[in-house]
C-alpha cells in the first residue's frame, strides 16, 4: 500500500494534499489493485475505484456548490435526466454518467434554463477557460461506461484499466483528471 500511495502522490503532485480523504483512499486503492492484479485477470476494481475518486472530487468541487442555485430553478419544466432530478432534490447524489451528461451539455448551443445556470456556475468557478467537452466530459463518459460494465460483471481488461488509470491519475508528461479538477475548481481558501 505504501508503494501505491507513493506512486499516486508522484502522479498527482500537489493535488494529492488537496483532494478529499475519500478521494485519496479510492485513488490509492485503485493503484494498489493495479499493481496486484495479474495482467490476464479482471481489472474491474481498478476502474470502479478510479470512478469513485473522480465522482467524489467533482461533487465537492463543481456540483455541490451549484446545488442551491439549481434547486432555485426546480420549477423549470424540463426533462434532463438525473442531473435535473438531483438539482430538484429528488435524488441525493449524481453518478459519473450524469456528471458527464451535465458537463457535455455545456457545449450545446441550445440549453435549458437549468443548464444555462449550470454553465454560468462552471464559467464562474473555473479559474481559466477550459474546453470541458474535450478535457473532461468525453473522458468521463468512457470511464462511466467502463465502470458500468464492471458493475454488471463484465470483465475489464488491463489495457482498459491502464487507460482509465492514466486518464484519472495522469502520467509523467500529462496531468490526469484529478489534478485538473483540483487546479480548475479550487475550493474557498485554496489557490487556483
Task: Tell me about this structure.
The protein is mainly alpha-helical. It is built from eleven helices and two strands. It has helices at 2-12, 15-18, 21-36, 44-63, 67-72, 81-87, 96-104, 113-125, 132-151, 158-169, 177-184, and strands at residues 170-171, 174-175. The chain has a two-stranded antiparallel sheet. α1 packs across α3 (21-36), α3 packs antiparallel against α10 and α4 runs parallel beside α10 (158-169). The longest helix is centred in the N-terminal third of the chain and has 20 residues, at 44-63. 41% of the residues are buried. The model has no long low-confidence stretch (mean pLDDT 87).
Q: What fraction of the residues are assigned to beta strands by DSSP?
A: under 5%
State the helical fraction: 55-70%
Q: How many β-strand runs? A: 2
One letter per element, helices H and strands E, the order comes to HHHHHHHHHHEEH
Classification by helices and strands: mainly alpha
In angstroms, what is the radius of gyration?
17 Å
Low-confidence stretches: none
From the N-terminal CA to the C-terminal CA, the straight-line distance is 30 Å
Amino acid at each position: 500500500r505504501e508503494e501505491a500511495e507513493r506512486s499516486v502522490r508522484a502522479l498527482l503532485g500537489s493535488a494529492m494534499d488537496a483532494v478529499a480523504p475519500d478521494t485519496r483512499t479510492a485513488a490509492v486503492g485503485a493503484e494498489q489493485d493495479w499493481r496486484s492484479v495479474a495482467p490476464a485477470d479482471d481489472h474491474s476494481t481498478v476502474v470502479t475505484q478510479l470512478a469513485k475518486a473522480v465522482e467524489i472530487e467533482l461533487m465537492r468541487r463543481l456540483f455541490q456548490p451549484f446545488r442551491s442555485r439549481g434547486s432555485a430553478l426546480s420549477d423549470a419544466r424540463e426533462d434532463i435526466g438525473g442531473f435535473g432530478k438531483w438539482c430538484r432534490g429528488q435524488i441525493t447524489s449524481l453518478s459519473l454518467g450524469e456528471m458527464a451528461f451535465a458537463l457535455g451539455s455545456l457545449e450545446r448551443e441550445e440549453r435549458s434554463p437549468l443548464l444555462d445556470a449550470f454553465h454560468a456556475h462552471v464559467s464562474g468557478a473555473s479559474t481559466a477557460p477550459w474546453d470541458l467537452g474535450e478535457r473532461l466530459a468525453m473522458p468521463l463518459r468512457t470511464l462511466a461506461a467502463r465502470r458500468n460494465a464492471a458493475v454488471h460483471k463484465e470483465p475489464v481488461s488491463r489495457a482498459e484499466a491502464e487507460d482509465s488509470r492514466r486518464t484519472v491519475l495522469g502520467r509523467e508528461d500529462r496531468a490526469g483528471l484529478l489534478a485538473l479538477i483540483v487546479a480548475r475548481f479550487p475550493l474557498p481558501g485554496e489557490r487556483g
